Write the structure tokens for this entry.
Amino acid sequence: MPAFAGMGLDRASTLRADPAWVARMLAEPATRFIGAGNEGVLVDGADTPVLVRRPLASSPAADAGEAILLGLEDGAALFAVDLETLDSDALGRFAGAGRSVHLRDAGAILPHAEGGLAAYLMGLLNWHRRHRFCANCGAATVIAEAGYSRRCRACGATHFPRTDPVVIMLVEHAGKVLLGRHAGWPPGRYSALAGFVSPGESLEEAVVREVREESGIEARDPFFVTSQPWPFPSSLMLGFHASSDGGEPRTNDDELEDVRWFALDTIRAAIAGDTSRLVLPTPISIARFLLGRWAATAG
Ligand SMILES: [Zn+2]
């Protein structure tokens, strides 16, 4: 399972629609709050880092009408706190000995389920920060469903958290896969091709189009492998594997600096730590997951 997947909370999708239940949960002694700011999540603990969970007493007073409920953890409610909304005193009280860690780093150091929770927290807060006004009429919106939607009292529109689908794919031909690199990446690093899905396009069509646009290679028979929440700020990575009849790849837009085929033994060597021919994408990325999966199963 890629990093950022595997969040373990019960999302309380039905209960969260009841404001009285949410208000009761807010006042429960077992209820905890976790926080994130624009730059990252609050983490505590040196050997086994975890997200900082604070009881109500050290948390900013939350109004049930504005509370963002993440879900239930062993029956206890867990709410989100946007650290950007706190003054420095309140931030100091809430943070305590915790430290802010960028989500990318959190994905690498936290246990799997905690990384998933961090991604969920950041994804939800990112959406609320960017959608305070109605996209339909421009009026201010209010939180509904304890943070799972926002409602516009002026025009009645309901807005749901936005997730932007991105296809990312390994294209295989004759024991090689197609990888590309962006200018500015560390020397030698290549990764899977990827791109946003366009309106009116299936995921499979997006795979074929993106590969064509970024490399000139014709991909075919894409199949879905796995997905990954990627809240930077609101993407969902959809991992595919596709076949191809090969050809000489070429960069034909400004997006990639280089695109080329990499042989299975090169991928396997890179996974084993040999960076002389290829530097792999970061371990928390779905691209790295797709490459590892292929290297473990390819002939
Ligand atoms: Zn409106």
